[in-house]
Design a protein that fits this description.
With 492 residues, the chain is α/β, with parallel strands linked by helices. Helices cover 43% and strands 13% of the residues. An eight-stranded mixed sheet has the order 4-11-10-9-8-5-6-7, sandwiched between helices. Strand 1 and strand 2 form a beta hairpin. Helix 2 (39-46) crosses helix 3 and helix 7 (187-199) packs parallel to helix 8 (214-222). The relative contact order is 0.13. The structure holds pyridoxal-5'-phosphate. The site of pyridoxal-5'-phosphate has 14 residues, from helix 7. Residues 123, 187-189, 213, 215, 257, 262, 290, 292, 320, 322, 327, 332 line the site of pyridoxal-5'-phosphate.
């Protein structure tokens, strides 16, 4: 068993050991009945105190992951198979009952319509940074020149000119495909949904990162899928754990956000991208590569997409324009090939007979004229300033118990609090102070972790970001200090 600990991290060593063993158990790397190293052995191996290991093992036992037998040792209790079987039991009874589980999650997507003043929950771009006036003029001109657009159906696959323009656009960040292999969708959300409704049925295994984008969890839940999760570290999805799950359960679909992962911001290394593709090929799975914002990088260009290496058509590449251009137009694309692509086009026809021609034609000149490339350059600069502001404010005002991952692109910062804090409760307090954020639990498909939150720096002006982050930090301080007063011995 390989356990990596970071001595400089703010998470206590006992918790790091606990979390690492939980990951091993959940992923099936540690099977039911396997004996853990003795406390003495592990403390020697990791060069930590005996007390640290005892704390981790006690917590594992309290949480029912292991059982200790006196005189014999500590043994793994629950494993992935049980989770899969348990979920299958639900499905064999009535899988649609599980659908109600995901309804509360959808409320978070609508936070920006809520009355609070500062929305740090919205993973959207500040409308002031989007070319609304330009699009308005284009739409007006287009309609006055060609009002018949309103009286026509577009092609099911999407407007040919837009597909050509999108092909040129995605080529810029190394996601090669051909215009013939592009399907225009109603946002990337529809791309994910089309794959799910075409290839996933009740009880089928889908692998997702944990945490992940809540809207995708809802889609697979809605299909009655059995969702298994793989943790994410700074290099993206943990391939060692994925490998084990693939060997055992042969998932139908692997859903990943490799570049500026939502919510953690992690960037999957090139090596892992290749490994995941090889895995999917070896078990004939489909990878959904969700790429909402790889063009918003602050440092260096991220590695090439998984799709760019996909010789045999295992990857469905999904890209929306909501996070860079015009969420109101609801335009995205998916790129796939072979029979997978044909089936997705058929599903699109069944769903809506093609995306609205009006919105497709509205954004066409912007993308075609390369204005889009200049616009994304400006977005990078503007969002980097906001990200830096948020990081600076967190460093200045957040209590030392709070940690975060520095995003190198994208729209979000992932913040972790001490494990006894439930950010769902924190949100109630924040709302009283006119503030929203996304509680981390919304991002976990299976076992929830409640002590994280996602803060988006892209939607609010710098002034409101300043006010919002300072207020949030003062909420952190008051929750942590009141807990310290009431309880002097938190385990973690
Ligand atoms: C990772 C990810 N995928 C997909 C979507 C859906 O976006 P849209 O359908 O607007 O393109 C979002 C929206 O927040 C997202 O964050």
């Amino acid at each position: 068993m390989h356990i990596e600990i970071q001595r400089k991290a703010e998470i206590p060593l006992s918790k790091q050991i606990y979390l690492s063993i939980v990951d091993h158990i959940r992923s099936g790397l540690l099977q039911e009945g396997v004996q853990l190293p003795s406390v003495r052995e592990l403390s020697k191996q990791l060069e930590v105190s005996l007390v640290t290991v005892v704390k981790a093992y006690t917590k594992l036992e309290q949480e029912n992951f292991v059982t200790s037998i006196q005189g014999k040792g500590t043994f793994v209790k629950a494993n992935r198979k049980e989770i899969v079987d348990r979920q299958k039991e639900v499905h064999s009874y009535n899988w649609q009952l599980s659908v109600q589980d995901y309804l509360p999650r959808s409320q978070f997507a609508q936070f920006h319509h809520a009355p609070e003043k500062i929305h740090l929950s919205s993973s959207m771009i500040d409308p002031g940074l989007l070319p609304n006036r330009y699009l308005e003029r284009e739409i007006y001109q287009m309609l006055s020149e060609n009002p018949r657009i309103l009286s026509q159906y577009g092609e099911i696959q999407g407007d040919e000119q837009l597909r050509n323009a999108m092909y040129e656009y995605v080529k810029e960040f190394e996601a090669p495909t051909t215009p013939e292999n592009i399907l225009v969708t109603s946002g990337s959300q529809q791309g994910i949904d089309l794959v799910a409704r075409t290839f996933v049925g009740p009880g089928d295994v889908v692998v997702m990162e944990a945490p992940t984008y809540p809207g995708a969890i809802d889609v697979f839940r809605g299909r009655g899928a059995t969702i298994l999760t793989v943790p994410v570290d700074q290099d993206g999805m943990r391939v060692d754990i994925l490998q084990n799950l693939c060997d055992k359960y042969k998932p139908k679909v692997i859903y990943t956000i490799p570049t500026f992962h939502n919510p953690t911001g992690a960037v999957m290394t090139f090596k892992r991208r290749k490994q995941i593709l090889n895995l999917a090929q070896s078990i004939q799975s489909i990878i959904i590569e969700d790429d909402p914002w790889s063009e918003i990088y602050f440092d260096k260009k991220p590695p090439a997409s998984i799709k760019s290496m996909d010789q045999y058509g295992h990857v469905v590449y999904v890209k929306g324009l909501s996070k860079t251009l015009a969420p109101g137009c609801r335009i995205g694309i998916l790129a796939a090939s072979g029979s997978i692509f044909k089936r997705l086009c058929a599903a699109k026809a069944n769903t809506d007979l093609g995306s609205p021609l009006l919105t497709q034609k509205s954004i066409l000149p912007f993308i075609k004229s390369k204005k889009m490339i200049d616009h994304t350059k400006k977005l990078r600069t503007a969002l980097k300033i906001r990200r830096d502001l948020v990081l600076e404010l967190l460093s200045k005002h957040a209590p030392f118990e709070v940690s975060w991952i520095i995003p190198k692109g994208g729209l979000n910062v992932w913040i972790s609090l001490p494990s006894w804090i439930d950010t769902n409760h924190l949100l109630l307090e924040a709302k009283k102070q006119q503030l929203t954020f996304l509680p981390g639990s919304a991002c976990y498909p299976v076992e929830l972790e409640n002590h994280h939150l996602r803060l988006s720096y892209s939607y609010m002006s710098e002034q409101l970001l300043h006010e919002g982050v300072t207020t949030l930090c003062s909420i952190f301080h008051s929750v942590i200090s009141s807990k310290k007063q009431h309880d002097n011995s938190p385990f973690f």
